[in-house]
C-alpha cells in the first residue's frame, strides 16, 4: 500500500527535523546563544512534518486491514500486543508527541527571553522526540518490526 510507504518515509523526515530542533535548542541552552530564525525554522519544520504525518496516519488508520481488525474487535485487540500497538498505543503516543510539539512551539513564541525559548524548545521537542522514538515500530522490535522503509 503506497500510503504505508509515505507514512514510513515521513518518519525519517520527522526524526531528522526533531533532531535538528533538539540540537539547536541544546546548543542554545549550553552556549547561551540568541534565538535565531534558524532555531524557529527547526521547530517549525518539526511541527509541519508531524502534522503531515498525522494526516497520512489517519488515512492509513482507516484503510489498514491491521487497524480495521483491531477496531472491529477491540476486546481481542487488547489481548494481542501487535493489534493493540497499531490500534491504540501507536496513535495515542503520536497524538501526545504532536501535542508536545505544538505546545512547545506556542510557548516558545510567548517566551520573553532567548534563554527561555531555547529551554522550552529543548524540553518540549526533546520529550516529543522520545515519545516518537517509542511509537515507531522499529525492525528490531520483534513483534512489531516493519522494516527500515
Please provide a written account of the structure.
The chain is mainly α and 149 residues long. The protein has one domain (2-135). The chain is 83% helix and 0% strand. It has helices at residues 2-31, 37-63, 65-72, 74-79, 81-110, 114-135. Helix 1 runs antiparallel to helix 6, helix 2 packs across helix 3 (65-72) and helix 2 (37-63) packs antiparallel against helix 5 (81-110). The two termini are 13 Å apart. The mean pLDDT is 91.
Distance between the termini: 13 Å
Give the ordered list of helices and strands: HHHHHH
The largest sheet, given as strand count, sense and whether it forms a barrel, is: none
Number of strands: 0
Rg calc: 17 Å
Helical content stands at over 70%
Low-confidence stretches: none
Alpha-beta classification: mainly alpha
Question: Number of helix segments?
Answer: 6
Shape: elongated
Q: What is the average of the pLDDT values?
A: 91
β-strand percent reads: under 5%
Count of individual domains: 1
Write a concise keyword list for the protein shown above.
transmembrane helix; elongated; mainly alpha; membrane; Cytochrome b561; 149 residues; transmembrane
Topology:
Elements: H1 2-31, H2 37-63, H3 65-72, H4 74-79, H5 81-110, H6 114-135
Helix pairs in contact: 1-2, 1-6, 2-3, 2-5, 3-5, 5-6
Task: Provide a brief overview of the structure.
Helix content is 83%, strand content 0%.
Amino acid at each position: 500500500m503506497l500510503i504505508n510507504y509515505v507514512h514510513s518515509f515521513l518518519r525519517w523526515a520527522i526524526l531528522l527535523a526533531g533532531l535538528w530542533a533538539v540540537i539547536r535548542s541544546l546548543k542554545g541552552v549550553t552556549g547561551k546563544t540568541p534565538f535565531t530564525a534558524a532555531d524557529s525554522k527547526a521547530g517549525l519544520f518539526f511541527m509541519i512534518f508531524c502534522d503531515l504525518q498525522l494526516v497520512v496516519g489517519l488515512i492509513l488508520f482507516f484503510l489498514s486491514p491491521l487497524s480495521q481488525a483491531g477496531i472491529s474487535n477491540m476486546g481481542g485487540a487488547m489481548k494481542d500486543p501487535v493489534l493493540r500497538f497499531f490500534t491504540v498505543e501507536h496513535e495515542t503516543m503520536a497524538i501526545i508527541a504532536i501535542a508536545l510539539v505544538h505546545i512547545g512551539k506556542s510557548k516558545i513564541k510567548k517566551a520573553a527571553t532567548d534563554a527561555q525559548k531555547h529551554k522550552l524548545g529543548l524540553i518540549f521537542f526533546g520529550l516529543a522526540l522520545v515519545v516518537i522514538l517509542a511509537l515507531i515500530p522499529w525492525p528490531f522490535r520483534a513483534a512489531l518490526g516493519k522494516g527500515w522503509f
